[in-house]
Amino acid sequence: MPNSRGSRAGDNQEQQALQRYLRRAEEQARHWLSVGGCGHLLISDAEQAHARRLLEEQLLPPLADTKQRWQLLSGMAPGADLLFVETLSRWLQARGIEFDLIAILPVPAEYLISDWQLRCEQEQLHVSAITRRRVQAQLEAQLAQAREVIPLFGEDDGPAQFRSRRYRQHQYQRLAAILAQHPELLFGIVRPQRGGAPGGSLEVLGWREDRRRIPSDLRLHRNHCAAQPRTLVVNLSESAGALRAGPDDPVQRVLQRTQEASQSGNALACLDIVRAAQRQGLQDVRLDYQLIQALANTGNTQQALNHYRELDLGPEAHSEDWLALRGRLEKDLALRAQPRSWRQFARAAEAYEAAFKRHGGYYSAINAASMRLLAGQARQAHKLAEQTLELLAVRSAPDEIERYYQHATRAEALLLLGDAQACALALRQANPLLPQDTLRRSRTQQQLHLLCQELGLSTAPLRELQLPPVVLLRQHGRPPRRLQRTQWPAPLRELIAQRSFINLCLQTPGDLLLCERLHEQGARLYLTLPVPAPELVRRWRQPSPHKCEERLTALLDKAQTVIVQRGFLPREQSWQNAEAQALTLGLSVLTAARTAMQWRLLELSWNEDGPRCLRSELVAEPAREAARAYALAGLPTVKPSSSQRRMAGLIFADFSGFARLQDSLYPRYYREVIGGLARLLDRHGQTVRVRKTWGDALHVVTDDASSAALIAVEVQAFMEKHRLRHDGMLGDLELRVAAHYAPVFSGYDEVEHLPAHFGTQLAFAARIEPVAPPGSIYVTENFAARLSFESPQRYILEYAGEVELAKHYGAYRLFALRAR
């Protein structure tokens, strides 16, 4: 937004509309009171009630004597914006105060709804079709009441611009700058302690406090800025009990903490927060909903379903959210069962059908249809698929998200009916929509792949819905300091344009230079470091190490993920680099298999004329062809220089409930539990290097990740059978298991007169076990990557989140392990 009296004023329609309003506001400044509002997209029902009470009973009454006509300025986004408009409009009307509503739209209304729904999904909040339609109707009703709608976008701006997150973010910042500068009074409905996104409400408040922070191209002429701006903050973080008119809501505080944990991807923290609140006596159906979601997200789907069944939900049981949650749990259990049972798929279908019959949504209908097919009930599946198509034929699609889901749902229904050609056409129509939303596309692909497998159909039609590939990039030689994109080979240019997931083991200064150039062109980087960044820079021995470290730090901040390998000695550089390459390879294939994305190996060679492509190999279905991917990439075979050093699988386990055992039960515990575990380990022979137990703990060291995984799974299965055979305290015992794959020292314990393994990585692995939920197996990224090519078809690895380890060991990404 240029300076309102600058040379670009009136260049286009949106600027003309804004300029007309600002000039009119300048002329009527004596008679108008301009009042703006901003706030978060996501606010709970309790937070909305808190905000309304604070506005109506404390903040607005002192303003009731004003003689001016109010001008309400709002960006009209769902959440706090609409709450501000609705609350102030009602309050002003009740007091006979004249006002106008001025809607300033940074993007078309449908994209306001889309971005709200995206935020909900990022927070792991389910948005039913009814909820979305309600929010859309609320927005349309408020826009209909507006005296003037000022678009900040032009007639020439089309879907290509609106689908770009960068474009939308800039538009939101344009709106933020107007709200920060123009209104005489601004209401901010926010949680001040939370970080804010560019163009968000916290940035508005920050710019309003110090206008010098506003980018120069977004500043208004001083004549259009409030001379004495005032700001009133509605703090959503304060409990409702702070208001004399309303009671305290401790449940809402718990829910806010779970939302913050979910935003960081930490499902474990969500589980801990809700369980702690319930232990303290808090009982609320909202906590139960969060608990069930957290259990499912950490891989404890059966526990989640058991809790669901035990609840007395009352009227909530028939809401679309709860019915859909039941369907999701039954579906997850059905997909995980080995061998798969048609009865479990039928139960999932029944849950989705209940939601469909009550609420009439095509989402529930198509999921019910797919579950019926997987249950072996093709006739019912076909009928539901036909009903889904009938629903889609009469449903409008108000925004891009809805259009995507309608095309994807139509494709799924047509696939169920055996029309592969029409399915491909529907996916072709969906493909231009949400091009950067890999998560949605991945989920669609996974569901359709499952149906193709069940129907015995080719997956070729599914290629119409394109996902960027996961790329393992390797290079030979060093790139020149000046590197132009036009020099790059066509395969690399194409992969960058597709926003591929580029995985690279960053080992040399040349790797750093290449990554910098790739990022400049918009590539998404997933990096592995053989050692921590400062040590890597020292290893390079560059003329300006401080500058080199600054460049590396800046790059790592921009990467999507960074994995640092640990536990190696300085003299083990060759071995360390080889293991880092294996780690990068394993994680790239694991990511591709988990997301139904293709996997590609790209090798570049550098010379004075620039790069050339040595090899470009594609694996279309890495979940089924993991072995081929590893064979194409090849694993370096570098052995440690010392016989006392080796890579090993490390297991630490601990019994939950052990402290409650009475003395009379100890003999049975050692005879039945420890004795049974000993016999289990005996069956694994020489692959077990170390086996120890003390009290409630078990420690095992094995030759590799696959043997450690097998032992961990068998140990958990043994304990589950033991729990079913016993009651009382012995039946209450549950095992927490943690596994890691890392370099260790092998030696001899002169106290026990037994072989021993030791090193920092054993201490690290021991810190994982205390944070694993009872009955589960948690493994490190290193372990997951190694297991993905040692035993690619035997186990399922599910991301558990970034977890804070015990004894202040820091936060690390962990995976939940289970057998197929």
Automatic annotation (TrEMBL):
GO MF annotations, alphabetized: adenylate cyclase activity
Gene3D superfamilies to which the protein is assigned, alphabetical: Nucleotide cyclase
GO biological process, any: intracellular signal transduction
Highest rank taxon of the organism: Bacteria
Sequence ranges assigned to domain Guanylate cyclase in this UniProt record: 649-769
One Pfam family here: Guanylate_cyc
Name under which the protein is recorded: Adenylate cyclase, class 3
Biological source species: Solimonas aquatica
